[in-house]
């Protein structure tokens, strides 16, 4: 029997953890990902940091603490930590323990691009090996709306979600939108799909999409349907059996439209309903390491080979 190579493992890469407007200056957010606990906080310099959540002193959860300037203060004895996880103050000690000064708390690389906060996670603890592209239209360009997003915490794994990229027949049977033309490419840590879809009940009479994964869990989509839109399909493992999967959409502003934001909200609702059709399937399906395929299926094994690079220490994308 072929074994499931991905079972019980986490891939290496950039993972979206928050939209920018979910974490304001001075705010702290607790994050439960990769079977671990983290805290994110935005200092007064505007920078978001992600640190391990448990204080190196006596283990309190820093998510219950407060943000002061560019530091996070533990709720238990008010040790204070910098954005890189170094202890910078112990209010009742004459001297900060040396070990506490040197990054007592692990900090994790963060990139806030496209109005989304991403953290780098590598089970082996290695630094990032690629960067996420900045898309001006996603990054707050004035001609575009804000992100309208929805997040689901579900019982599935990233390996299921990414398979949508090559699963051409499901577009007809799950979404009611048959694919007319599709080109799939794999290149290093990038996997992309360009397609023309012959109409969708709510998203447009004809859809042209370009959907690209940058690493295992962040997909950028440019879609022309009823309206030109940018979309993100992002997922982050909560543990080895659950993920937070999130779908975001923003529309290009059109002066001819009365209220692009109201339209974007409604259009996002349609997009989320379409995405939910996949969510329902993922929640209950099992993973077939050796599926029985037919000649009308997409290049599933090629996709799995591509995904495997994020789990193998010996293969590093450039
Ligand atoms: S547990 Fe954090 S300061 Fe004591
Ligand atoms: Fe789908």
Automatic annotation (TrEMBL):
Keywords: 2Fe-2S, Iron, Iron-sulfur, Metal-binding, Oxidoreductase. InterPro entries: Cholesterol_7-desaturase, KshA-like_C, Rieske_2Fe-2S, Rieske_2Fe-2S_sf. One of its GO terms (molecular function) is 2 iron, 2 sulfur cluster binding. It comes from the Bacteria. Residues 14-119 form the Rieske domain. Its cofactor is Fe cation. One of its GO terms (biological process) is cholesterol metabolic process. This is 3-ketosteroid-9-alpha-hydroxylase. The lineage of its organism: Bacteria, Pseudomonadati, Pseudomonadota, Betaproteobacteria, Burkholderiales.
